[in-house]
Design a protein that fits this description.
By secondary structure, the chain is an alpha+beta fold. Helix content is about 50%, strand content about 20%.
């Protein structure tokens, strides 16, 4: 079973949400990195200034290295945060003052060369992490150059707190950016898909008979779809045209030979004097009649199916239509001594519909009534108005419904249990029911009081 495909809108929104989430994360990481670097640069600047200030106070002499600690340097460090400050001064590799365990730059005891700018590094110290600035100087002691290294360290809690605050603001900014991007994604998805919806609406507004090529303004990306759709419409138009032509030609090529065979068989029946031959000819005539009726109703049903989806609606006056159909059945009714009584056709009754389909439904209604009515009875064909409906009623004194309803008898090839000895295909009432449904009408069958059947065919008035 094929998995249902996601909608284009959902796909687009998911992709835009993903891009927005990635950009928000990148924004957060970028701001966090910049904040960490800025905090570290700020701390390094203060540490470096304090370290250089101490290094400038170094003095040489005949006895040893002298130093007057500038406590203002430590006050500068204390002013930017509440972090602890440590220092260490080594002369010729030997601790001179400060914290002896403060890590040296290389952690191996080596010296760093004298330089103008300090060296910065981070080391663990006394259960915490400190940032250290170290600078090397050379001092003359007893006319001998002695390397001196000055180290100043500060804990990093204050700088980390500043970076954390900046990072939290970056996270809030990222979330806000994501929310804004999500809203814009929804608007963008709607805007991008709007041309598709407009094209769908333009095609959906068309009636079943509108098989023109689609000529709707569309973006360049949708033109291949419109081109393929127009190709499909052209092929469908050709297929429908061929279907209509086939039905018409099939009706002609089937009915005409069967009528010819029946006519020749009837002539032969009148001319024959042999009773076995006459009986055989009667069987041939019955078979031809049954084949002709079945072929005609099959073609009528095909026509109904074809035209139901492509109704050619126009105003139809039911009064002359009923008179014409009744006149066509008059000879058949006379052969059975049936009285075909028509009423209600004196005034026009207009409906909106497909005339060939309505005529086919009326023919099948009357055909059933004539076929199943016993000789020397009457068939009442009535046209009346009932509210907003035109109601055609065909009432006969035939065999009735044998306990079955209109829904069962309107099924294709379904015939009543009491109709086995009468020629029929089981499509007549199917055609009537489908024509009524195609026109928004209703078809009903009831047992007639006193015996027989009452069929009602209702259509909305124009």
């Amino acid at each position: 079973m094929r998995r249902a495909a996601l909608s284009l809108r959902l796909r687009l929104v998911i992709q835009l949400f993903g891009i927005a989430a990635v950009l928000a994360i990148v924004l957060y990481l970028t701001v966090r990195t910049v904040a960490d670097q800025a905090a570290e640069a700020t701390q390094d600047g203060v540490l470096g200034a304090a370290t250089l200030a101490i290094a400038e106070r170094l003095q040489g002499g005949e006895v040893g290295v002298g130093l007057d600690l500038p406590y203002e340097a430590f006050s500068i460090l204390g002013s930017i945060s509440a972090d602890r400050v440590f220092y260490r001064i080594d002369a010729d590799g030997v601790p001179l003052t400060g914290y002896d365990d403060l890590p040296r730059p290389d952690q191996g005891g080596g010296e760093i060369a004298a330089s103008v700018a300090p060296v910065f590094y981070t080391r663990p110290f006394r259960d915490t992490e400190v940032r250290i600035a170290a600078v090397g100087r050379t001092v003359l002691v007893a006319r001998r150059p002695v390397p001196v290294m000055v180290m100043v360290a500060q804990t990093r809690q204050g700088q980390e707190a500043i970076a954390a605050r900046v990072a939290n603001r970056a996270a809030a900014l990222g979330l806000g950016s994501f929310a804004l991007a999500a809203a814009l994604s929804l608007l963008t998805a709607g805007s991008v898909l709007r041309p598709i919806n407009r094209l769908a609406e333009a095609v959906g507004r068309r009636g079943p008979n509108d098989l023109r090529a689609v000529d709707h303004p569309t973006p360049v990306e949708l033109r291949p779809l419109v081109f393929s759709l127009n190709g499909f419409i052209a092929r469908l138009r050709g297929a429908l045209s061929r279907t209509e032509t086939f039905i018409a030609e099939a009706a002609h090529h089937i009915r005409t030979p069967l009528a010819t065979v029946r006519a020749r068989a009837e002539i032969a029946l009148r001319q024959s004097r042999s009773e076995p031959t006459r009986e055989a000819l009667r069987a041939v005539i019955r078979a031809v009649e049954e084949s002709s009726r079945s072929a005609g109703q099959l073609l009528d049903h095909a026509t109904v199916i074809y035209r139901s989806d492509r109704l050619t609606e126009a105003p139809v006056d039911l009064a002359p239509l009923i008179d014409g159909v009744a006149a066509g059945f008059a000879p058949t009714a006379d052969l059975k001594d049936l009285a075909l009584r028509v009423a209600g056709t004196e005034a026009p009754v207009i409906v909106q519909g497909d005339r060939p389909l309505l005529e086919s439904a009326l023919r099948n209604l009357l055909d059933n009534a004539v076929k199943y009515s016993p000789e020397e009875t009457a068939i009442d064909l009535t046209l009346a108005r009932d509210g907003g409906q035109a109601v055609i009623t065909v009432a006969d004194r035939g065999r009735g419904l044998s306990g079955e309803g209109a829904a069962q008898l309107s099924e294709r090839f379904r015939r009543g249990s009491n109709a086995g000895d009468v020629v029929g295909s089981g499509l007549g009432l199917t055609i009537v029911s489908e024509v009524a449904a195609a026109h928004g009408g209703l078809f009903e069958l009831d047992e007639r009081e006193g015996g027989g059947t009452c069929a009602r065919f209702s259509l909305p008035l124009a």
